[in-house]
Design a protein that fits this description.
The protein is mainly alpha-helical. It has helices at about 10-40, 60-65, 70-85, 90-115, 140-165, 175-180, 190-205, 210-215, and strands at about 40-50, 55-60, 135-140. InterPro entries: Trp_biosyn_TM_oprn/chp (IPR019051).
């Protein structure tokens, strides 16, 4: 006794739903983490000015040091919604953009962690004596690490959408299938209700069905 065979479409449907759900979660999580990390402190700056001016302390957020981080975070959040609306090649292009945004966030995070941070004196305020001051930057590692995680999630989501997104269903396809006309089974005998509906359709088309009946007699 053999097990009943499963139709290929039935077996693939759960996998498609899981892939689509995973892509949406990756994009949304990556975007949320990038926005959160971009608004936090990435570096503490100590500025030593020439005497008799006192030193100046400042903090720089991720959005100030790496403006691409919050911008790409917004793109990732928008992509989590757009993946439902787009189909075909449009979804592939979206996947490439998402992967690029995730990579940009990851690169910015690595630069922040390694201390490759370019601090402009304009970011430190309008204090006197900043032109020839000595600037010491201390990186706060926690938030760049979170941005790195956001970039990896966004990159993974973009790759998944690029490689698999063309085969996922689009928005509204379920309703289109539900509203489609049901095919008539071949070989089913014509019922009185079918003949009644055919007569009304003939009248709507400008044909009198009684003329055919009279000619047949």
């Amino acid at each position: 006794m053999t097990a009943p065979e499963t139709a290929p479409g039935t077996a693939q449907a759960p996998n498609v739903r899981r892939e689509l759900t995973a892509a949406v979660v990756l994009c949304a999580a990556g975007g949320a983490l990038a926005l959160s990390a971009g608004g936090q402190t990435w570096a503490e700056v100590a500025v030593t000015r020439q005497a008799p001016l006192p030193p100046v302390a400042a903090v720089l957020t991720g959005g100030t040091i790496a403006p691409l981080v919050p911008a790409c975070g917004l793109l990732l959040l928008a992509a989590a919604v757009a993946v439902f609306a787009l189909r075909g090649w449009g979804r592939t292009v979206l996947g490439v953009l998402v992967a690029a945004a995730g990579a940009a966030v990851a690169v910015a995070a690595v630069r922040g962690l390694t201390g490759s941070v370019d601090v402009d004196t304009g970011d430190l305020g309008s204090q006197v004596g900043l032109g020839g001051a000595q600037v010491d930057v201390h990186v706060v590692a926690g938030w760049p690490v979170l941005a790195l995680v956001a970039g990896v999630l966004g990159l993974a989501g973009g790759v998944l959408v690029t490689l698999r997104g063309r085969g996922w269903p689009g928005m509204g396809q379920r309703y289109q299938r539900a509203g489609a006309a049901r095919p008539v089974r071949p070989g089913r005998p014509e019922s009185p209700e079918d003949r009644h509906q055919a007569a009304w359709k003939a009248l709507d088309g400008g044909t009198d069905p009684t003329e055919d009946d009279g000619g047949a007699r």
